Amino acid sequence: MAARPLVARQPNERLQALIQEAGCSNAGLARRVNMCGAEHGLDLRYDKTSVARWLRGQQPRGRAPAIIAEALGRKLGRTVTIDEIGMANGKNLASGVGLQFSPTVLGAIEQVCELWRSDVGRRDFLSGSSVAASALVEPSRDWLISAPDAQVARQAGPRVGQADVAAVRSMTQALTDLDHQFGSGHVRPVLVHYLNSVVSGLLAGSYRESTGRELFAAVARLTELAGYMAVDTGQPGLAQRYYIQSLRLAQAAGDRGYGGYVLAASMSHLAAQLGNPREIAQLARAAQEGARGQVTPRVEAMFHAAEARGHALLGDARAADAATGRAIASMERCDAGSGDDPVWIRHFDEAYLADELAHCHRDLGQAEQAARCAEQSLAGHPESRARRRAIGYVLLATAQVQQREVEQACATGMKAVELLETLRSNRGAEYLDDLQQRLEPFRDEAVVREFGARLELQQAA
Q1: Which percentage of the chain shows pLDDT scores above 90?
Q2: Over 370-421, what HEC string results?
Q3: Quick check: 303 and 288 in contact, CB under 8 A?
Q4: Of 106-110, 217-221, 319-323, which range is least confident?
Q5: N or C: where does the chain have the smaller number of CB atoms within 10 Å of the terminal CB?
Q6: Which top-rank group of organisms is this from (predicted)?
Q7: Does residue 306 contact residue 287 with C-beta atoms inside 8 Å?
Q8: Would you say residue 89 has pLDDT above 60?
Q9: How many CB atoms lie within 10 A of CB 316?
């Protein structure tokens, strides 16, 4: 197969190190690559001379780098990425890692493992990555029109069983609980290292079809959580990449409901934070369409609430009210005791719905309704949901500002400040910044000056 030189024809030391780690000869690696390629329908005819050229800095075309990485990964018993073998195109990696909705399961594994590895090893690049506007909605289109993955089972690598899937689920729950209580700044580094060091090896292992589907479902949830934590630590561009990969993993799991959740609960909220209201409604409607007939009333309620937020940000009160009505009607049909709800939606109770609707009323300038919904939310959220309660207090304080109850707003806002002092949460800080801006017209009042001084102390801490 033809090869093209690397830009700076340097010896490929990364590949050399991995070959040595795997204990392969050049001829042995060539045989493994040819065999792996045959499994993917490729007629590869590499030999030891081909490997010697790669080591001198030449790079094979097309899908070959991914096949080389897979062959080495099988020998090593873990996922190996094209970046790790020194064959990633630097320009494409910098601009596109994690932004593709891969057409194949193998490509999905490669994409998400590349993202995890890049997050751990290239933290400066990824933390500064911006949101790709075109990738806010395009993945939802790919998800809607893509055919189901016919097979996810793998025959190479260490055996993965139900105990491994259970471990991923338990880790997800534990990290979620810690995040709710302490904020993502404390938790996210642990999660990313777990994905890169443990979960990548599971995806590259061997598993039966049923186990593989459950594994992809569990990893989709954990990857979405990493995206949420990226939002909470002020990294929306990184969050977008995690959400896209979570959506693709949900597709591999065959879980249309969870795919819709990623669109409506994750990507639409990211669009809201970035000030793209039209995309919010589009993502929510894509979730409704793509998961129609496959979700419980509780999931439907969340989808409709997400759509309502998009309409509210656009100032379309009529459409927002209609979506709100559908959300409330769906929630009223929920039966918590039925056991039908999947674990990833069970948190979305009346308190969460009230929180969503408080945002809608706030954005429509409906202060009285916003205050009522914020109070309902606070009444329902337990103390363990510290960040959510802090946001609820800010929503209530904002409604009080809109009603010109400035002294009460500052007192309520102070409750949010006290809660957020126990967290490391960029989202919480952004809500407080918004409240402070809304208080700006009243800056000459003593209570507002005192509130501002308390915020400055918190930010300096």
Answers
A1: 64
A2: HHHHHHHHHHHCCCCCHHHHHHHHHHHHHHHHHCCCHHHHHHHHHHHHHHHC
A3: yes
A4: 106-110
A5: C
A6: Bacteria
A7: yes
A8: no
A9: 17
Q: How far is CA 132 from the centre of its chain?
A: 14
Q: How far apart are CA 31 and CA 45, in angstroms?
A: 9
> What residue type is 271 in one-letter code?
A
Name the residue among 113, 453, 79, 143 with its Cα closest to residue 287: 143
* CATH no. for 3-88: 1.10.260
Residue owning tokens 């639409």 = 268
Q: What pLDDT shows up at residue 92?
A: 38
**pLDDT at position 33, please?**
93
Q: Provide the mean pLDDT of the chain.
A: 89
- pLDDT number for residue 461: 60
Cβ atoms 86, 12 nearer than 8 A: yes
3-class secondary structure, 60: strand
Tokens matching residue 391: 């946001």
Q: How confident is the model at residue 132 (pLDDT cuts 50, 70, 90)?
A: low
Residues recorded for the chain:
461
Query: What is the reported pTM?
Result: 0.78
